Amino acid sequence: MTRRPPAVRILATGGTIAGAAPSPCDTSGYRAGALPVDELLAALPALDDIRLDARQLASLDSKDALPGFWQMLAGELARAQADPDVDGVVLTHGTDTLEETAWFLHLTLALAKPLVVTGAMRPATAASADGPMNLLQAVQVAACPQAARHGVLAVLNGRIHRARHLRKAHTHRVDAFDSPEAGPAGFIQDGYVGWLSPAHRPAPRFAPETPLAPVDILFDYPGISTAMVDAVLRGGARGLVWAGYGNGSISDRIEPLLREAGRQGLAVVLATRTGAGRVGRPGTDGFIQAAGLDPYKARIALMLALAAGIPPSDLQSLFDTLSYE
To answer: Do residues 169 and 22 share a domain?
Structure first.
């Protein structure tokens, strides 16, 4: 019996990968999400060994993506995962918030099939556009059954990253994404997918329809105004991620305010503004340690955890566990 070629569904949401500029020389002055997914597919070579099904979900600049957008995507992706005619899914996305969307999906989706997120650092009209290769390689990884065993993945610039470690680390280079400390999960070149780390697909912690509690992030810096913490309390937030110095340090004049906020019911997570490394400071009872999560991932985890009704006593255990996924 002849085996049918794998079927990959592409769900497009706009972003730089679908951006258009007046000149092929423009790599920054462009309109994101200007091109439909059919035009993105036209830039790909013929793929006789993979069947493609492309659908346009949105046409936005990912800097404007809101938490409700994550929930919409999770619902669409869950349906794609359940479709017997789909073997893998690719989500095209703007790079500004790609890491946050990938992390939300990691926390909420049960994956039986590969899910790959991709984007581009240069618009589709640029003379040296990176989108076509990123999309081609994302499709090839999504068609690889082994990819399902690695959780939500991002494919950019020939590297395969896990959502847990993915970070945008440069403003404009095509190799803008990395996975600090853990390194990439794998690579792809000329259609060959190589894995650099063992498979690891944790069960989702939350359901796609889990509401998202309001959580803010504040960064410590010399001379920060105490009014910033007051503003978070007055704004109705249920949680706060404090991106502190080094190992999550807090300015002496700010720490009493955070402790009082905690006594008033605000969940306070201590993270680091450094960009890498674990937070685990002694003498910080009453606060939650972000452990290995950066401030942005810690915020999304806290938004879901608070809305799901996880008891405060269990939050530290959750963060410790998520850090190793």
So the answer is: yes
- At 2 the pLDDT is 54
| 97, 62 contact by CB (below 8 A) | yes
pTM assigned to the model: 0.95
Query: If you ran DSSP here, which 8-state letter would residue 154 be given?
Result: E
The span from the CA of 131 to the CA of 146, in Å, is: 24
In the residue annotation, 16 being an active-site residue is answered as: yes
For the chain, residues with pLDDT lower than 50 are 1
Beta strands in 68-214 (DSSP E): 88-92, 115-118, 153-156, 159-162, 167-168, 177-178, 186-189, 192-195
CATH number where 315 lies = 3.40.50.40
Q: How many domains is the chain partitioned into structurally?
A: 2
Catalytic residue among 2, 13, 16, 272: 16
Q: What pLDDT shows up at residue 130? A: 95
Say if residue 162 is in the same domain as residue 220: no
